[in-house]
Amino acid sequence: MRAVFVSYRSADLQHGARQLCHELSAWFGPGEIVLDSQTFAAGVEWLPQIRSGVAASSIIVAAIGPEWIASFLKAAPVSRLDFVIEELELARRIGIPILPVLFNGVSPADLEKLPSNIGWIKEIHSLALDLSASSSMSAVLSEVSRLGNLRPKSQKRRGLQSQAENVLRELWQPVAKPFRSGARALQSTVQSLATSIVLLAFSSSLVALVVFLYSGEGPGYKAVQISAASSTFIGVQVVLLALVSYALKGKLNIVAVGAWSIRFTAAILTIFAFWMAASWLFLPADVLSSIAESTSGNETRTQQLESIARHFSPSVLIPLVLLNVLVLVHALFLLWGYSWAGASVAGGKSRTTFALFLIPLLLFLAVVAASVSGVRTWRGTNIPGPVSMRYGTDLQTPDSIVRSKLLVEAKGQIELRGDFLVLRIDSLSWENRSEPTFNAFVWCNLGTWKDGKLDWPNPLIVSENQFLGEAKVGSTYTTSRPYTLRLKLNRETRSELTRLECSFGDVMGKHWRIDDGRLSTLRW
Fold this sequence. Notes:
Shape: elongated
Radius of gyration: 33 Å
Number of helices: 16
Distance between the termini: 61 Å
Number of strands: 19
């Protein structure tokens, strides 16, 4: 990535523009300056290199001399492409700072004479450069450093620290400036392809780390999942953009297409990690746990949304909705920026930009619509619904108080999530006063029932349990987090006689049914 792009008229090179470029190179380093006659490769289309150079720069220095002004006051063919206008309009559109530097007798009053297609530059604060005064040149160099947030060559850090700063800066771009991040994908060199691959690796690792903080799942496993999904996404993008590029230009720059696709994927992962981290920082831990649980498994999006809505009050749902709206707006800005960049890579113009933006947007909406409108195939007479358990109370008799041997309280929810029947225990506590020691479990059995009992010997049981601990005499217990039991539903469990029984106690010994001993009846 170059730091300073110099926009100039060739006729002004001999009248001060070359001296300005020389001073910029000496100040920032020759590798940090984009000067088309010295930087761009021969045998490659001019316009893509201009766009790439502008998009990759931190600041545009508009070297405005007498010939620069005169070129706009002359009558020019309407169809002629003006590279100076192209450079400055692109920088203006993607938010790169522009510093007009007036030299060789040009004054702000001359900018007032410019035609409307470039007249907007007079609204930008300009600097007058006296080529014979070192203090004047120093003022220009200092202003370029300030506006571009750049360091002089003498102050630059070298080695791994500098590379780390560049990677962090590039990772932050999709978050802070999503449209400009898209424009940076216009870089079409092998170096930018390598940079894009590094960014993808860092962004994937970042997502895996944030998911680990969010849900507690191992980052290694998540990294594998993210890598697989990213590879598929990149492959689809490369094929689509390659087809568009070949159809428009009859040839293909696979490096530019690859860099754009990889960088787009890295940008999406970065903003995903950013919003996940934001929710992890600002939402309560119990809310995060409920969201992670509600959106896990094979359930449809409708079922996930229903589950979230049941668990949370409006005071929690409103911030969640606002958070999702912000994520969507952010993603649309990013998509628009990368669509614009993709159109430039493919060699198209505004219509191509619109198509590249609209096609993935429609695909995204189609996926969302399909997930939201998923058909639920499993139903129950009292599912979904809350469940509770309260066992053991102290009884007042005329003579004394009869103390219960065991006190148990539990609250939770039975839900359908895709092909799973889920028992969620939000809170559970016990006090074992005198009941013989037993191993405390929560478990569920799904089987065929007749006349209030299992249809033995073929009950079709699907069972799941969660060990809580040893309930010794005198022990107490209170859950520190929700417990979830998931029972896989299949064709064998499709029966009008299928019942769900959930219990607390010893699996092989004494136990007590949750929800006051009621059985949940499933129907299809």
